[in-house]
Fold this protein.
Amino acid sequence: MCYNSVAMEQFLSYLIVLLAQFIAVMAVVTVHEYAHAFAAYKCGDPTAKFSGRMSLNPMRHFDPLGILMFAVVGFGWAKPVPINPNNFNDYKKGSLWTSAAGVIANYLTAFLFYPLFVLVFYYLLPPLQGKYAANFLYYLFNGLVVFSLSFCVFNLLPVYPLDGFRILDAANTKRGKVYWFLKQYGYHVLLGLILLHFLAGRLPFLGYIDLLGYALDFAIGVFGKPITAFWNWIFGLFGLNVPFIF
């Protein structure tokens, strides 16, 4: 009887964590795709708006496989926003801003949710310690910050079809051998990097060749430190000594 109670409690805790992370992931990818659609519309292309994708409704952007990948390996995707760059008022600027909008929006999301996560972690969770609500709030706000930052960094990788490749494509008119290789085989390269990263998390000896892991750890440190430094400075003005989380 006691064993069953413990097992049920562990199962409920797992479901709560899963629910919190699912909500966080859906929020992050929704902001990302909405930003693409909004930027495209402002640059002259109404395709996403007319397709119903310029929306903050998560179900408009839901991709089951992409969300499953998020849950399994920590990286995923939503349904790509339909964009017709021929409609842009300025082709190059429109392509550049539309490609960059998603990662900018995710970085701003991480920036804005970081202080909320800190306040929840240090001031709201202690009184709720041991309750299901504590787990839910922790993984929800932690997910909103960490997923936003990791999604931003991941999408900046210059591998097709990620935003980093599209940003470079919009900013550069040269089309060398590397460009055409990534254009043709980018999906395979990306899936290979994700698979290697996933396996490295379970087989430590592969960690030495986990290129995606190295890139993300470095980039998250670079991108995350300005966020923690700024908000910790703000907290310091109010006499709050908050340790760095990133």
